[in-house]
Design brief:
By secondary structure, the chain is an alpha+beta fold. The protein folds into two domains: about 55 residues, no CATH class; about 190 residues, Histidine kinase-like ATPase, C-terminal domain (Heat Shock Protein 90), CATH 3.30.565. It is built from eight helices and seven strands. Strands 1-2-3-7-4-5-6 form a seven-stranded antiparallel β-sheet, with helices on both faces. Helix 6 packs across helix 7. The longest helix is centred in the first third of the chain and has 23 residues. The protein is globular. It starts with a helix and ends in a 5-residue tail after the last strand. The model has no long low-confidence stretch (mean pLDDT about 85).
């Protein structure tokens, strides 16, 4: 869903007008898109005919509907929504303690702040719990953040490209930020959000991947077979951060 918003934004820039979007006719898919707030977000990007929301209420496994992130006030709203409604899902679906809500909020705050400080362009965030019965045999929470900004290489070029010379590329920039903690700030200790996220995700035996430009890098747990580094991909404007947090295993 977030990738559709990114694709629509890129298309709009290329053709100087909103692209048209054909929503799926399947009632279940339409209901899911509505529940995640996709249509509301898509109105800012596409021309399309909105479909009425099908299905009723009942308990929802959505931790955070799709939200646009463009300013610090948006980050505060993200955190407020999560802290008001995520606790029950994190405890019932994932078996996390009550204190995990605060740590979960910190992760979301950091990935959203990345959009504002580094992308300098529109971005979106969403989070939901899924039952990965076949893939993992337990519930997971999936967090996705995407933007259409400068990407990691663009953000780090001024400060770090000279030291890498001809080796400076999308994959090199991701390694510099993800593995070595380099940031666009010359001051040591500033902009360490990615490193904080990595540590917390590792504590929860989760996975995190970052895609930017033509490369993708990740911290991969034993239950995931995603390659830790992939290069030569189709170019992605901006960046995509994906985090998967699995339910706690019984002692």
């Amino acid at each position: 869903m977030l990738a559709l918003l990114v694709a629509g934004t890129v298309a709009a820039r290329a053709q100087e007008g909103r692209p048209k979007l054909q929503l799926p006719e399947n009632a279940d898919v339409g209901g899911y898109l509505a529940r995640m707030g996709f249509q509301a977000a898509a109105r800012e990007v596409f021309d399309f005919e909105a479909t009425p929301r099908r299905g009723g209420g009942g308990p929802s496994d959505v931790l955070l509907e799709i939200m646009s992130v463009a300013a610090n006030s948006d980050v505060h709203e993200v955190i407020d929504r999560v802290q008001s409604g995520a606790g029950a899902i994190l405890s019932s679906k994932l078996g996390y303690p009550a204190t995990a809500v605060v740590q979960f909020s910190v992760i979301l705050s950091e990935v959203c702040q990345n959009i504002i400080e580094h992308a300098e362009a529109p971005g979106w965030v969403a989070a939901q719990a899924y039952n990965w019965t076949k893939r993992l045999g337990r519930y997971v929470v999936v967090i996705s953040v995407m933007d259409v900004g400068r990407g990691f290489r663009g953000s780090l070029t001024d400060e770090h490209s000279a030291r890498y010379g001809d080796r400076w590329a999308d994959a090199t920039a991701l390694e510099a930020a993800f593995l070595h903690g380099l940031t666009r700030f010359p001051d040591s200790g500033r902009g360490q959000g990615i490193q904080q996220i990595r540590r917390q995700v590792r504590r929860w035996d989760g996975a995190i991947t970052i895609r930017s430009g033509t490369a993708r890098i990740g911290q991969v747990p034993e239950w995931d077979d995603t390659p830790p580094l992939v290069d030569g991909m189709s170019p992605l404007p901006g960046s995509q951060i994906s985090i998967i947090l699995p339910a706690r295993l019984a002692e």
